[in-house]
Amino acid sequence: MMKKLLICDDEQTIRKGLTSIIEKRYSNITLIDPSANGYDAFQKILDHQPDVVLMDINMPGMSGLEVIEKSMMHAPCTKFIIVSGYDEFQYAQKAIRLNVSDYLLKPVDRQKLFETIDRLLRQAMQREIEEARTSEPLPLSLGQDATSYIYRHYQDTNLSLSMLSAQLHVSCSYLSRVIKKETEMSFSELLTKVRMETAITLLISHPQLSTLKVSEETGYKNQHYFSKVFRQYTGLTPSEYREKHLKQSSRRDEV
Predict the structure, then answer these.
(1) Structural domain span for residue 225
(2) What phi and psi, each to the nearest 5 degrees, are found at residue 141?
(3) Which of 94, 108, 169, 226 could form a disulfide with 215 if both were Cys (CB 3.0 to 4.6 A apart)?
(4) Measured distance CA(37)–CA(64) in Å, rounded
């Protein structure tokens, strides 16, 4: 099976250079279009679920370490290799905490890069083989159990695919496929849908609730991030959505 790799760096020459050497070295890797900023990188990780990501720390919009931290919940099977010009202990420390697979300094040592990628590809293949060997027929209700758990625990800010897979005693990659088959959505998409629909209900039925309170009630630690996701989902900010609904209700009452 072809593996997917994403290159994230704000310097075009580095993106092109890494793309070139990886294309020449690997015939079993599909390269996702590279990312030049943190927001784009995070979105592509959500959309494509790459097996390996080469991540620069100094990325516009959202730093590489922030992208990795946010991706842990939504892409738990993705492995990260930091490629950075920063040789500082504080960055290395955080990379270790985030379970980054390797920390390579620019200019990149090609042999070291290839060794790291090879190791991660072997791990991915071994994981797939073990899953195939140990997989047993699972109850048809697994997809229902997973979606039910999400609906009951969406308020948990730490809810993640890896947490749910541990709860249901299956691998995260297998559970991801089951949820997709059950709902035609990824874990991340389903969780966002549940949280956003709940947020809409709270905004409409409880006009006194602040946006901060609504974000907390729907499992978001950060109000700004909640508002951003809400706008992507509805096209409006939470305040705009509530105001629009109140105006529509007022017009109906007048009629």
Answers:
(1) 142-254
(2) -85, 0
(3) 226
(4) 9
